[in-house]
Amino acid sequence: MKAGVIELGSSSTPKTSASRGASILDFILRIVAAIATLGSAIAMGTTNETLPFFTRFIRFRAKYDDLPMFTFFVVANSIVSVYLFLSLALSIFHIIRSKAQVSRIVLIFLDTGMLALLTAAASAAAAIVYLAHTGNTKANWFAICQQFNSFCERISGSLIGSFGGILLFILLILLSCVALSRR
């Protein structure tokens, strides 16, 4: 090294620390997304309400598995939640080895597939929740949320968690792309 000249490339500490920070943020976002999707699956899967009709022997029941879209929602959120918990191992690997590229690329593809699955499930369930709240008079589908308040509140809250998971997946994919582009 000559006097007054700084050599570049000999030390990459700022780049490594930024990459490690991105890996730690990736780990935290995965934990939050896993909790959101697991919470959504549990909230939807345990939703049911029974209302008496005229007598106590005749009752109306609303349960999540009465509609296939809600069953798809529970299964998809469960799959995504398990995937997120399993992907924490790769996220820890990225914290330890910040320069890993192939595993980041694999995570981007898997995250994108899980994002598509979660979006499909949340959208299908959102359509049914909308019908439950507003109904459709042309098709003679009446709004059931006036009678089944607890049921509708739980399925709506479950959708919020799932759409939060979708936003976190988008952030995870963008974060991984930025981490790869800095290399």
UniProtKB/TrEMBL annotation:
Q: Which residues cross the membrane?
A: 27-47, 67-93, 105-132, 159-180
Query: Topology with regard to the membrane?
Result: Multi-pass membrane protein
Write down the InterPro entries for this protein, in alphabetical order.
CASP/CASPL (IPR006459), CASP_dom (IPR006702), CASPL (IPR044173)
Chain coiled-coil ranges:
none
UniProt keyword annotations, A-Z: Cell membrane, Membrane, Transmembrane, Transmembrane helix
**Record's GO cellular component, any one?**
plasma membrane
Q: Where is the Casparian strip membrane protein domain?
A: 20-167
UniProt-annotated location(s): Cell membrane
Instruction: Name the domain of life this protein comes from.
Output: Eukaryota
Q: Which family does it belong to?
A: Belongs to the Casparian strip membrane proteins (CASP) family.
Assembly and partners? Homodimer and heterodimers.
The record's section on PANTHER family has: CASP-LIKE PROTEIN (PTHR36488:SF12), CASP-LIKE PROTEIN 1U1 (PTHR36488)
What's the protein name?
Answer: CASP-like protein
Look up and give the organism this protein is from.
Fraxinus pennsylvanica
